[in-house]
Specification:
Layout (H helix, E strand, L loop, with lengths): L6 H32 L2 H26 L1
């Protein structure tokens, strides 16, 4: 436990903790927005197309190697 010697030290720590709380809250809001953006259907389709493209290239390479 911290021992304070003046009210200025208490005010300083309270202000610092308040700012840390505000920063943490803004980070949470940013994460929420990122999550909402990731859950949009267009992003799911885009991810699916990337996967299908990579899988298609692998299948094509396998067919070329077997010949």
């Amino acid at each position: 436990m911290k021992t304070y010697k003046s009210f200025d030290e208490i005010d300083y720590d309270l202000n610092r903790l308040s700012l840390e709380k505000q920063i943490a809250w803004e980070e949470i809001k940013g994460l929420k927005n990122d999550f909402q953006e990731d859950m949009k259907p267009l992003n799911w389709v885009n991810t699916g197309l990337k996967f299908a493209g990579k899988y298609g290239v692998l299948v094509l390479l396998k067919k070329l190697i077997r010949r």
